[in-house]
Design goal:
Number of strands: 33
Oligomer: single chain
Helix content: 25-40%
Number of helices: 27
CATH class of the largest domain: Alpha Beta
CATH topology of the largest domain: Deoxyribonuclease I, Chain A
CATH architecture of the largest domain: 4-Layer Sandwich
Largest sheet: 8 strands, mixed
Strand content: 15-25%
Structural class: alpha+beta
Shape: elongated
């Protein structure tokens, strides 16, 4: 009944939802199909390196994301951004699966000799057309995107605040004045809130403007940053957040949003500055609003993944160090050559911060923030060109055939004081990792000539977390057809980071912080299978496609091709647990024990409190906590009310666990009962029906048959007896059933050795006579664990009743107990799962045999 009330409330919430009404008033297409299909919201925090993210969590700047890790079982992983560490390159790899699609944020097209900047519509469109021609499936097909360089398959009307789009302009024009009025009235609180934030940000920006002038910053640039800061940090964030919530209400299958605020401010004052970290509070709040909207969706099963595309290095502008631009310095250095380049064309000397306001679209913005290139060359010649936007500069059209490239690289390093210069040696080749023939990449730095990859660790240093991959990617960047003749790097080991733009924080190269991003993923989304211990953008893409292409259980006629497994690095993952068990076992000396994780879970026929039917969701709950043995109650097998699927075996297939099912009710081909699943070898001992209520107490609704299931688990050589049951609703019935369970036909049998574990839904409170009768034989684990306060499991939204139990023999030790109250567990069933870690004595074995047992069991 409580479940029905919550489902009714959810339906009414949907009917009065602002996002729902706005979607209809704006005449946006609403997806009414495939309500059980998975859907995904990808949230990118632009420019936030993993070390800065860790600091923000520790300082309380991002409380919602910290809650996801602590309460919602998200796991925080490292991510390598790739080289170049720029948003366009990372997005191209995630959206299309193409690494290093562009050599930098700004570059010259060698075909057209045109300078391209990825915040321009023309450049973004050209690059995306090439990506689309690769034949890779665009990730955002039929979805939407906000603040993205590429549309990635999203329709024109679904791409917002992108270089080729103009926010919601066309949509609002189509909607008419009535829709606009409704939009304003229904979001009056959001408007007030946004107005207050804009006012606060204006006051702060004026204060920072004055501080910048005091520190000697350029007056015009500091003045221009005031509207940029307000527009990017507040207005763009709030408009995009509202848009994502509307798209969630519409049921779009995949939604992408990029939060630019931190990256914008980190460019200006540095990634570790308090100025930049201030923006993370607002981003955290916006993510919380999106996450809650996703989990309240009545049209899709949404997952929310959060990651950063790259980090930033604390940098010093080249002009600040040397009093002139890199373009001027390079021109002067190469003027000493016998055959010097003619003129020069410079692009992007002052970074991209002031250009991001162009994402709002509109002719007045384009005129306010023009795009200029500074050029000087003789007519009829291809001039020397330099694109310098961040810590990477690309040098083009160096027509000095009589001078070896090594000499030019040496001259640039010595005359301009640039940390490192690289080039493609077309006269020399090598064999790549896949057997392909590649041109050799060489370079020059303070210690002379070097080659990649041979000298990579020398120029990258020992502290670079992703040195091997970054060395390979940097070499491939030099081979990019649009990378030019020379690549000038503002970073190398032992040298302070230099940006060739006017900025205090930079990215785009191969530095240790700019390539060190993070990924915050739900606990049942496995980390990359490569074993490298971190993600890269293509891994995000592969995992997203796998997730989105999964079919609901009711549509499956055969087992799924992919199993759901716990993520490596998760605090409850099997890998970490095994390591903990081995450490504990080594400390115990002669007492050889291992940890067995047992879960009991009433799954309510896989029907959640949101009225959605989803065996996959139950499997995800189980996978997040990685039990060795899981006992389920209220499981349907081929019943018409739940779509005619075999829930028990569907869940076990998703989890790659062995399964035994005991039907308490059997109506022709339809069954209903209990199941036990195990990742260790099992043997079925007995399954059967327990005694019903005495005839005198039989009332309508109290005569549902109840069963029990007894299996034997081979746990590292110890035979563990596991019993699963779901007792009746009347006291008299439960007493008879417990008497049977503890009697000689079940737990009291001479064929039932210790240790014994009895689990299930007993429909009885701890102080009841029934539970006391069980405790004459076994211990209640929630009372057995020292210092543990027993927790209720029913009802999942307000778990005050403790009716689910794990009972064990007196000699077994309880290590830990979990009753997870995440949004997922509160929705998946009307019960919360009860998880108990037990110490089980196992026979002593030599190390080799024991390790083999672990591998076979896993």
């Amino acid at each position: 009944m409580i479940t029905n009330i919550e489902a009714t409330l959810r339906r009414w919430r949907r009917r009065i939802s602002r996002s729902e009404w706005l979607a209809r008033m704006l005449k946006l297409q609403i997806n009414e199909r495939d309500p059980d299909a998975p859907a995904l919201v990808l949230i990118q925090i632009d420019g936030l390196a993993r070390p800065q993210f860790d600091r923000a969590l520790a300082e309380g700047k991002m409380p919602f994301l910290k809650r996801l890790i602590k309460r919602e079982h998200y796991h925080l992983d490292h991510m390598y951004s790739g080289v170049p560490a720029t948003t366009p390159a990372v997005q191209a790899e995630i959206f299309y699966g193409v690494k290093a699609a562009v050599p930098a944020f700004g570059f010259m097209s060698t075909d057209s000799q045109e300078m391209l900047r990825m915040y321009e519509s023309n450049a973004a469109t050209k690059v995306e057309k090439k990506l689309a021609d690769t034949g890779h499936e665009p990730l955002l097909q039929h979805g939407s995107c906000y603040v993205s360089v590429f549309r990635a398959g999203a329709d024109n009307d679904e791409a917002h605040f992108c270089p080729a789009a103009q926010g919601w302009g066309p949509t609002l024009k189509k909607a008419g004045p009535l829709a606009l009025l409704v939009l304003l009235l229904t979001n009056i609180w959001s408007l007030i809130r946004t107005g207050a934030l804009l006012l606060l940000e204006l006051v702060l920006s004026i204060g920072d403007f004055l501080r910048g002038l005091t520190d000697g910053q350029d007056f015009l640039r500091e003045l221009m940053f005031i509207p940029t800061r307000i527009g990017i940090t507040i207005l763009l964030r709030e408009l995009s957040t509202v848009g994502v919530k509307i798209d969630i209400a519409r049921g779009l299958p995949v939604i992408y949003i990029n939060f630019l605020g931190y990256d914008e401010q980190a460019h200006r004052r540095g990634p570790s500055s308090k100025f930049a970290h201030w923006t993370l509070k607002g981003i955290d709040d916006a993510i919380g609003r999106i996450w809650r909207a996703a989990h309240r969706s009545s049209r899709r099963h949404y997952d929310v993944w959060i990651y950063s595309d790259h980090g930033q290095e604390d940098s010093t502008p080249y002009e600040t160090l040397h009093g002139r631009s890199l373009a001027d310095a390079v021109s002067e250095a190469l003027s000493e050559l016998p055959q010097k380049p003619s003129g020069h064309l410079a692009n992007g000397d002052h970074g991209i911060q002031l250009q991001r306001i162009r994402l709002f679209g509109g002719q007045w913005v384009q005129k306010l923030i023009p795009v200029n290139a500074r050029e000087s060359h003789r007519e009829g010649e291809a001039p020397m060109a330099l694109s310098a936007m961040g810590p990477i500069a690309l040098l083009y059209n160096i027509h000095c055939k009589d001078t070896p490239p090594q000499e030019i690289a040496r001259l640039i390093v010595e005359k301009t004081k640039a940390p490192m210069v690289l080039y493609e040696d077309v006269s020399s080749t090598e064999t790549g990792p896949d057997g392909e023939v590649l041109t050799k990449v060489r370079g020059w730095w303070r210690d002379g000539a070097f080659s990649l990859p041979e000298d990579g660790h020398l120029v990258f240093g020992d502290e670079h977390r992703f040195a091997d991959e970054a060395i390979e990617d940097l070499a491939n960047l030099c081979r990019h057809p649009d990378a030019g003749d020379f690549v000038i790097s503002g970073w190398c080991a032992g040298h302070e980071s230099i940006s060739f733009a006017i900025e205090c924080g930079s990215h785009g190269g191969a530095g240790p912080n700019e390539t060190h991003a993070f990924a915050l993923m739900p606990g049942d989304i496995p980390s990359p299978a490569s074993g490298k211990g971190h993600w890269r953008p293509k891994d995000i893409r592969d995992a997203a496609l796998q997730f989105l292409n999964a079919q609901p259980a009711r549509k499956l006629k055969s087992p799924p091709a992919v199993t759901v497994v716990p993520a490596a690095g998760d605090k409850h993952s099997r890998l970490d647990q095994n390591l903990a068990m081995e450490a504990a076992g080594s400390q115990e000396g002669s007492s050889n024990t291992k940890t067995l994780r047992v879960m009991t879970y009433n799954v309510h026929i896989c029907k959640g409190t949101d009225d959605k039917l989803s065996p996959e969701r139950i499997a995800r709950v189980i996978a997040r906590y990685a039990p060795d043995i899981v006992a389920l109650q209220e499981v349907d097998v081929r019943r018409q009310r739940t779509g005619g699927i075999d829930q028990a075996h569907q869940i076990s297939r998703l989890l790659a666990m062995d399964c035994h099912f005991q039907p308490a009710m059997h109506l022709e081909d339809e069954k209903y009962g209990d199941a036990i699943m195990s990742r260790y070898p099992v043997r079925l001992i007995k399954k059967g029906i327990l005694p019903g209520p005495p005839k005198i107490s039989r009332l309508p609704g109290f005569a549902e048959p109840r069963g029990a299931l007894w299996i034997e688990v081979d746990f590292h050589g110890t035979r563990v007896q596991v019993f699963n049951t779901h007792l009746g609703l009347s006291k008299a019935e439960r007493l008879r059933q417990i008497e049977a369970l503890t009697g000689e036909e079940w737990m009291g049998s001479t064929q039932c050795p210790r240790p014994r574990i009895l689990v299930g839904d007993f429909n009885a409170l701890p102080g009841s006579q029934e539970v006391k009768r069980v405790m004459e034989v076994l211990d209640d684990t929630q009372l057995k664990l020292p210092g543990h306060k027993p927790k209720g499991t029913f009802f999942s939204r307000l778990p005050k009743a403790r009716i689910d139990y794990v009972f064990v023999d007196h000699e077994l030790e309880v290590n830990d107990i979990h009753v997870p109250r995440s949004e997922l567990t509160r929705q998946a069933s009307d019960h919360l799962p009860l998880i108990v870690d037990l110490r089980i004595p196992v026979p002593a074995r030599d190390g080799g045999d024991d390790q083999d047992q672990e591998q076979q069991a896993g």
